[in-house]
Structure formats: structure tokens, C-alpha cells
Design brief:
single chain; about 200 residues; mainly beta; Porin; 8-stranded antiparallel β-barrel; about 15% helix; elongated
């Protein structure tokens, strides 16, 4: 019982410290496109994320993204790509001392992490489960204390990918599981939820 009370007190103390120190929670939503695009006439990308900044420089982000690859007038061509990731976030503008204290409307974040994705072929019923690493950069423009506009470019590498993005399965005899690559380009909004609004990004 004493251990339980102690753990609860530590948790409450941590929460109180976090709220006083930063208390920046944010939701991110974005829409854009995915590359490779050469073989596809219809391709789209959307994403949602929850971000918590531990302090003014570092945070963590939980991310969901979905991509669709299609080709007009070609049935059973393409795939749906869905991913989940956990990423570290760095306020790059602050780390590199790029912030101009007379103008706090612009900011720059960097993020990198690991995740899981599945590729659903339009031609075959099975799903391809892959691991991934990702790296991205996010310029921001502050609109209000509660909302910011952002652009994002994220490079993704999938490991042991058995299906191409066109939905075809790689031949095990001639094409071993490969490293698939994607570049997500998107624009969206960041909504700040903490009582200190976007302080960790903009202070």
C-alpha cells in the first residue's frame, strides 16, 4: 500500500512539474501527397499526430498516416499504405539558435522515429506488414496562440517489404524483400491543448 501511495505521489508530482514547466500538448492534422508518383495518377496522403513537448527543445510524437496509390482506368492496380509511429521531436530553430526574438511567428521542428506499417494490395488479399524508420522536418507559422499552420516533409524507409506500391508482389526467386521508400509532403494545422498554449514552440 505504501509503495502504491508513493508511486501515485511521484506520478502527481511529475504531472504537476510538467504542467508548470511546459504543459504543451498538441494535435496535428495534415493532407498532401506521397512520392513515388511516377507510376500513379491518383495518390494521396493524410496524417494525424499527438505531440507532447517535454521541455522547450524536446518532445515525443505519436503519429498515424495513410497513403493511397492508384492508376486511372487500371483495375486492381495500386495499394493502401497505413502506418503508426513513435518519434522524437526537436525544436530545431531553438537548438540551432535560429529564433529571432523580435519575430516569433516562424518556427522549425525536426522529428525522427520508428514505426509499423501495412500495405494492402488491390490485387491480393493478404497484407504486407513492415517495420519502418522515418525522418522529417516541419516549418511552422503561428496563426494564434492556439493554432499554427505547418508544412511537413517526411522520408520513410520500409524494411522487408514484400509488395510494391503498385500492388504487385515481389518474386521471391528474383526479388528478395526490399527496402521501400516514400516521401510524404503535406500541409496542415497544429492545435495547442495545454494551458500554456504553444509556449514550448514559440516562447
Amino acid at each position: 500500500m505504501k509503495k502504491t501511495i508513493t508511486l501515485c505521489m511521484l506520478a502527481l508530482s511529475f504531472c504537476a512539474f510538467s504542467q508548470n514547466k511546459s504543459d504543451q500538448y498538441s494535435l496535428e492534422a495534415g493532407y498532401g501527397a506521397s512520392i513515388p508518383v511516377g507510376r500513379f495518377s491518383d495518390y494521396s496522403h493524410y496524417e494525424f499526430a499527438f505531440r507532447y513537448m517535454i521541455d522547450e527543445s524536446w518532445g515525443i510524437k505519436f503519429d498515424f498516416g495513410s497513403d493511397k496509390f492508384r492508376k486511372d482506368n487500371v483495375p486492381n492496380y495500386g495499394s493502401d499504405y497505413t502506418r503508426f509511429s513513435v518519434q522524437a521531436v526537436n525544436n530545431l530553430a531553438r537548438t540551432l539558435n535560429l529564433k529571432n526574438h523580435s519575430d516569433t511567428r516562424f518556427n522549425l521542428l525536426a522529428h525522427a522515429g520508428l514505426g509499423y506499417a501495412n500495405i494492402k494490395s488491390m490485387r491480393y488479399p493478404a497484407k504486407d506488414n513492415v517495420g519502418l524508420i522515418m525522418l522529417g522536418i516541419t516549418p511552422q507559422v503561428r496563426i494564434t496562440d492556439w493554432v499554427a499552420f505547418h508544412l511537413d516533409a517526411t522520408y520513410i524507409m520500409n524494411f522487408s517489404q514484400d509488395y510494391d506500391f503498385n500492388g504487385e508482389r515481389y518474386s521471391k526467386e528474383t526479388d528478395p524483400p526490399s527496402v521501400g521508400k516514400l516521401l510524404n509532403l503535406s500541409a496542415g494545422l497544429t492545435f495547442y491543448l495545454g494551458k500554456n498554449k504553444g509556449d514550448a514552440d514559440w516562447r
